[in-house]
Amino acid sequence: MATARGTWGYRDRFGDDFGRTYFRRFGPGVVSSVGLGTYLGDPTETVDGEYERALVAGLEGGCNVVDTASNYRCGRSERVVGQALERADVDRSTVVVATKGGFLPFDGARPDDPAGYLRERFVDDGPVDPADLAAGQHCIAPEFVDTMVDRSLDRLGVETVDCYYVHDPETQLRIRSREGVYDQLEATFERLERRVDDGDIGGYGVATWEAFRRPPDHDSHLSLPTVIERARRAAETVGREECGFVAIQLPFSAVMADAFTTPAHEFEGERRSALSVAHALDVDVFTSASLAQGDLVRGLPAGVDAELGGDTPAQRAINFARSAPGVTCALVGTSDRDHVAENVAAGTFDPLGARAFDAVFE
């Protein structure tokens, strides 16, 4: 697993190559503020090879955060991350590895009968109760998430996942009330607290697409303060003095800035944004879709672009995401080794200060 000594040593190895605040505190260690994502791409051997080369280049070039999920590319992304960790000239203790569980995954390829495959593998004789299944493919019940932790450890080939996310819990709002989702999250958090105790995961969190950036009247809204309170209750139930809930993941970019601009959460008597609440509760934030899934490579809004450092639109877009107050790391997915080098080089430019970032929205 990633350690304080390992990640600080990684920072000492690469820190002089980057601008100020490129490396940021995460737990007792540090992480690069640009991370490697593995979501996009076809589930093929060709893309596997491209991803492996790109991940190795990133790990050896100053990026020590890798993010994946059990369902990405039909499970191939986790395997490729494991292969890259083995191949790269970096020690495992220097790299923060995050993955997620929530969507029922395929195994290497999309089957001819997806619904039948999932039913046979996970419902008929597996860990999923049909009553817990949303949209035919989503489950966050404790037994299923517990099973996915084991599967991820096996696919990644690691002894410990540094951060394990419950994936898109707002999907469960299609079949149950918000209170019901909070109850199920708390039960699953109890199971994850035990996995922290066992050393299988370093910490856990929630990765969302809509839940934390939408206002309370939105169908996909979940309260971040409530989710964190449920995690703390789970830790107390298990008997752990320190809660293992360490991070959230949500989309954030120059064209999707709701996590900063939308006061979506009731907290301490006022409405505050997700980034503000996470900072106040000492929870790290990893942003996804920092390039808006490639759209921002063609350019940013003019008023934003002019304020940011970077030689390319992609670099300036990444620097926007990692400039937001409270953001620990901006994740960027690519299977192209040259693009990885370009993306990581965004860190050679200084991010905006808090006052300058605020001014972009005035």
From TrEMBL:
Record domain NADP-dependent oxidoreductase: where: 34-210
InterPro entries in alphabetical order: AKR, NAD(P)_OxRdtase_dom_sf, NADP_OxRdtase_dom
Top-rank taxon: Archaea
Recorded GO CC terms: cytosol
GO molecular function: oxidoreductase activity
Full protein name: Aldo/keto reductase
Organism: Haloplanus rallus
